[in-house]
Please model this.
Amino acid sequence: MSDNEIIRVENLHKWFDLLHVLKGVSFSVTQKEVVVIIGRSGSGKSTLLRCLNFLEEPSAGTITIAGQSMTMGPGLRFSHNKAISMRLNTGMVFQDFNLFPHMTALDNVIEGLVTVKKMHKDQAIPIGKKYLQKVGLEEKGFEHPIRLSGGQKQRVAIARALAMEPKVMLFDEPTSALDPELIGEVLDVMKQLAVEGTTMVIVTHEMGFACDVADRILFVDKGLIVESGPPDQIFSHAQDERTKLFLEPIRKVQQIFME
Amino acid sequence: MTVETMKLPGQPGFDPDLDMGQSLVAQKRREQIIQTVKIGVVWVVLIIFLTIILLQFNFDPAYMFAHYDFVLKGLGITIALSFISIFCATILALLGAVARLSNNAIALGISGLYVSIFRGTPLLVQIFIIYSGLPMMGAALAAKGYPQLQQTLTLTAFQTGILALSLNYGAYMTEIFRAGIQSISGGQREAAESIGMNRMQVMRRIILPQAVRVIIPDIGNQFIAMQKDSAQVSVMGVWEMTFRASRLARVDSKFMEMFIVAAFFYWVLTIVSSWAVGIVEKRMRHAYER
Model:
């Protein structure tokens, strides 16, 4: 294991009862790397991401994040405490934002600092404001989520995850629930994070964005990583038939725009 | 989400057809008022009709007016009984619901059995068991040399009423609370877990504050139901409204008069309570819009 490797997943399996969703996935992510996972709906890409912070309990395999490691499998007891402590290394952004509606934007951002890190509220507020500023919403701190647009909600959600200062940020289709005109502002924030060297694992259907920010793209099909490589290689010189088939319509659209 | 403000003539964006909108709104309001008045007339006619029928059968309204205050004196007890009991029941239900949703086998076992027994047996039987059954156990324990336990197990009628109502309603409300907690989307739990909260923190900081808004109107409805069920406590001779009504009715053989008086006061009490619950409900509906 190289020194700057931050995530290592070995032979990860996930069963939903008798449905085999992940069939032995292995990959690793190095520090400051932006990895984008693409694939069809139902291919298991979201499940894979959710296994990384144990929102889904992996059925079998080993996950190592920032030096902490957990092995799961039949006959092994899943340790919730271990899962919670490993989870602190990751920040998660959801498709449906999942902001806490009974708190203001600022309270959403500092909730983890106050409740989990036991920070005093007076100390937490400047940190919360700093991260709201980072996503361009410092003036919305005292609004409740109901008063925010979808794009603003998602940016608050990003700030909430960042405030915990995780080693890796996980994004689960962060723009899929947004109106088309609001997608840009969220992608801009994510691009900025990429430029600053944040380690990110992103599940998305935004191929143009994937092409732009990804250091590496993983193509997942039927519970396996079929192909992985830099965007250039995946989009232009895919080796695997399934990857080509998946990207074919996207390339056609791009060609139309080129002409 | 900006609020559309009314445009005045001369200002940019003034709608020349504004008169049409205003007259349509006024017409709708007029129709609503007429409908309300019509329903009110039907109520008055029905009540007069029922009164006339009653008067044909040896009914004595003068007796009602002379003795209504005897029943009314029980109103305080009825209210006290339901207030204290709904408070205790709410706490029981909160504990019960959290237990029902935990992974702990002991908590699940206790809460499951509690809900099953207290929902599956009549309130009246529960009252008898607590009021008459427990003192018998106490007597047996006293014979074995635990006299202080006998005192603990022998409850006054008022205490029994509170205990029985709390336990009974606590069981029903456990299920209401459980449903309320489960109505908070799984995404909220996931988001809270993703920033590192443990199960207790998720429940206390994220789920319960939101669930309370869903649950409070239901607590109000249970409170109204409890006001009426508190009449069952009269079997032990608690001096609440039903007991007082039946006392006097038996003396003078004025059953219809006295029980109608009691019924009337329960009715007024529940109407006032429904109105209060309605206000709370309306406020809850506009949650998080500050």
About this structure: Residues 192 and 201 of chain B are 8 Å apart (CA to CA).
